[in-house]
Specification:
The protein is mainly alpha-helical. It is 72% helix and 4% strand.
């Protein structure tokens, strides 16, 4: 199981959080391939933690659909299933479009400015081919909008879907810069709709921002 030795470990986290965060990243970026067996002892040694946090991380990853555990035998990275693209993206698009419509009515100027900052971070990461950083900035952008809709159930469902969708998003963001830069412009349209308090426009722009990657991924995979 080839895993790098020179990764940047996150600071100020518990052993479980550290293990979960790093193993998840390796699965998303392809360091750990679909179908690959995860070796608890090797991961424990590489991450500098005991086996217990690694086992706990496996449990969280299984809940997110990134690994499949077979008690008493092994844990493997799950396969990427093309059929899941439509199920995940269409559901997330509907959820986030609704959140954008609700948020457009009440979102504060400070949050709009923060959305602009996050979109600039996203654009810079895309331009520099920093795929993981682009994915994180995009997720922060969307999460801020869901938070602004002030519905904890929407936020909970969104977080769960985002965890499942990350491997697909990583594949999409690896594509030609022109394709991924379209997301930057879609983000700007969402922000403009918020500034105008236009709920319908915000919802449509949000839906487009998620449906377009879905269609492109269906062609790619």
């Amino acid at each position: 199981m080839p895993i790098p030795k020179d990764f940047a470990a996150p600071a100020r986290t518990t052993a479980k959080e550290r293990a979960f965060s790093q193993i998840q990243r390796w699965i998303i970026d392809g360091t750990l391939q679909p179908g690959e067996k995860l070796l608890e002892a090797e991961l424990s040694e590489t991450l500098g933690v005991s086996r217990t946090p690694v086992r706990e991380a496996f449990q969280l990853l299984e809940m997110g659909g990134l690994v499949a555990a077979y008690p008493g035998r092994e844990t493997r990275v799950t396969q990427i299933e093309k059929k899941d693209i439509f199920k995940l993206y269409s559901t997330l698009a509907a959820l986030h479009a609704l959140a954008a419509e609700v948020a457009a009515e009440t979102i504060e100027a400070e949050r709009i400015e923060r959305l602009k900052e996050l979109n600039r971070e996203f654009a810079e990461a895309v331009e520099n081919s920093e795929v993981y950083q682009a994915m994180e900035a995009d997720e922060k952008f969307h999460r801020l909008i869901v938070e602004a809709s002030d519905n904890p159930y929407t936020l909970s469902f969104s977080d769960s879907l985002q965890l499942h969708i990350r491997r697909f998003k990583y594949v999409f963001l690896q594509q030609h810069v022109d394709s991924t830069q379209a997301s930057v412009h879609e983000h700007l349209r969402i922000i403009e709709a918020f500034e105008r308090r236009n709920a319908g426009q915000a919802g449509e722009a949000m839906k487009q921002n998620l449906i377009r990657p879905m269609r492109e991924l269906e062609r790619l995979l």
